[in-house]
Amino acid sequence: MATAQVAPAVVAMPSATTTTSDAVPEPVPIEPVRFKMTFGAQSGGETRGAGASRTSNEVAAESDVTERARQVGGTKPRYPAEAIAQGVELGSPLAFEIVVDESGRVVQTRALRHAGYGFDEAAVAALRTYRFTPAKRNGRAVPVRMTWTVDFHFD
């Protein structure tokens, strides 16, 4: 983060004892103006000026691609030891919002429903190993945000 400082300015203000209009006013210093200039994205988001065009780094919605990402590899999620110890069985798959980059790797995950007992962590660990064919927009690979479910089977 770059910070710039501006030198103090002096503004002429009339004195309380001035009685004629031709008196020279005493200068009154004003606090320097301070501002911060930030370059790049903040809070994990992308910063764009008004009217800026879309870049290839933007994450497309699944509905905005012409060819969807398809899973081509990855490991099954491990049934969590905590769930086994507690005798917990997961009744339905866990839903996640994931971001798949231009090379087909999962680069971001967010649970849409939490199960606890170690299921969330095991699902994220498995999702990080998944590989996809890249999503495409007009023939060009783009990162895509999509919903994905992870199902657990006790083996």
Give a written overview of the molecule.
The protein has 155 residues and is mostly beta strands. The protein has a domain of 91 residues: TolA/TonB C-terminal domain, CATH 3.30.2420.10. The protein contains two helices and twelve strands. The longest helix has 9 residues. It is elongated. The two termini are 51 Å apart.
Features:
155 residues; mainly beta; TolA/TonB C-terminal domain; four-stranded mixed beta sheet; two-stranded antiparallel ribbon; 12 strands; 10% helix; disordered N terminus
- What would CATH call the class of the domain at 60-150? Alpha Beta
Q: Give the distance, in angstroms, between the N- and C-terminal Cα atoms.
A: 51 Å
User: Uncertain segments of ≥5 residues (pLDDT<50)?
Assistant: 1-21, 30-55
Strand order of the largest sheet: 5-12-7-8
Measured by DSSP, the beta-strand proportion falls in 25-35%
**Which class best fits the helix and strand makeup?**
mainly beta
- Counted by DSSP, the helix tally is 2
CATH architecture title of the domain at 60-150: 2-Layer Sandwich
Task: Give the gist of this structure.
With 155 residues, the chain is mainly beta.
